[in-house]
Amino acid sequence: MQDFGEAFGLAFTLVLSGDADLFEIVALSLRVSLSATALACIIGLPLGALLAVTRFRGRGAVLILSNALMGLPPVVVGLIVYLHLSRAGPLGFLGLLYTPAAMIIAQTILITPIVMALSRQVIEDLHGEYADQFRSLVLGRWQMVQALIWDARFSLLTVGLAGFGRAVAEVGAVMIVGGNIDHLTRVMTTAIALETSKGDLALALALGLVLMVIALGVNALVQSLRMTAVRHAYA
Question: Structure pTM?
Answer without folding.
Answer: 0.86
